UniProtKB/TrEMBL annotation:
Keywords: DNA-binding. The keyword DNA-binding applies. The keyword DNA-binding applies. GO terms for molecular function: DNA binding. It holds the Pfam family KilA-N. InterPro entries: KilA/APSES_HTH (IPR018004), KilA_N (IPR017880). This is DNA-binding protein. Residues 1-106 form the KilA-N domain.
Length: 266
């Protein structure tokens, strides 16, 4: 949320479309002795040329540039920035300058805050990807959440390819969990014993995160190492995005089994 516009200790409210409350501007001007009680927004909107200006602006933006609400907490006249500045000029030129500068400073501050938030978010995602070796397919979802939290438009693709080194298909390989693949291949390993074997081979590693139920305790989970990424990918766990859930490429699982059984790839 952007920093509120405050003029002469009067907060100029905005609605969901970013339109400013002209009644708040009027109160701020009256408090400074720059406007009379008669210079209300309703009188301004009846002025010569204002209706045509408002209509042209509404058509250009494909939405109402002025909205008047009667009754309730949001009662008043709400207008886009251009209309608000024109209203300030109608009240008094010096007030127009004051309002314009306040709008400009507020936007500048908001842009600065947004830049800091974007940088912090990207740094967090970079750390997340590096430390947890998250698969590319999970990153668009994380970026979309970052965009949404910052109120930014969604410009990212919904899909990214995950492929092992040397893959020439250009698309994601089919993967399954270790439990599913062990069952499919009928090998005498439980999932936990298989993970421990892969840990000895440097393919998986044990990581931890604070427990959501008991912050003073740790929750352990498995993650593929850099070496292990040739055999699979790290997905974010569905029950907690702060931990990984290894999935293994179906096509490369026979080679991985040979490595587990013999200590060397066949």
């Amino acid at each position: 949320m952007s920093k509120p516009v405050i003029i002469e200790n009067t907060v100029v409210r905005q609605d969901a479309f970013g339109r400013y409350c002209l009644n708040d501007l009027h109160r701020a001007a009256v408090a400074q002795g720059k406007a009379t009680e008669a210079q209300r927004p309703s009188k301004f909107l009846r002025g010569e040329g204002i209706d045509a200006f408002v209509q042209s602006l509404s058509e250009a933006q494909k939405r109402a540039s002025v909205n008047t609400i009667r009754g309730g907490l949001e009662s008043g006249t709400w207008a886009d920035e251009l209309v608000a500045i024109r209203y300030a000029a109608w009240i008094e030129p010096a007030f127009e300058v004051q309002v314009y500068e306040q709008f400009r400073d507020t936007i500048k501050n908001a842009n600065g805050m947004l830049t800091e938030q974007v940088q912090a978010g990207l740094a967090m995602l970079a750390f997340y990807k590096q430390e947890m070796r998250i698969a590319p397919s999970t990153m668009p979802g994380a970026m979309k959440k970052l965009q949404s939290s910052l109120g930014m438009p969604d410009i990212l693709p919904a899909y990214a390819a995950d492929t092992p080194d040397g893959c020439m298909t250009g698309s994601s390989e089919v993967t399954h969990s270790l439990t599913e693949l062990l069952s499919l291949h009928g090998k005498p390993y439980s999932a936990i014993s298989a993970f421990r074997r892969l840990q000895l081979l440097g393919i998986t590693e044990r990581k931890s995160r604070p427990s959501s139920k008991a912050p003073d305790k740790e929750k352990l989970f498995w993650s593929l190492t850099e070496k292990g990424l040739q055999f699979g990918k790290n997905l974010t766990a569905p029950d907690n995005p702060r931990q990984t859930q290894p999935h293994f490429y179906d096509l490369h699982f026979p080679r991985l089994l040979a490595l587990m059984l013999n200590g060397a790839a066949s």
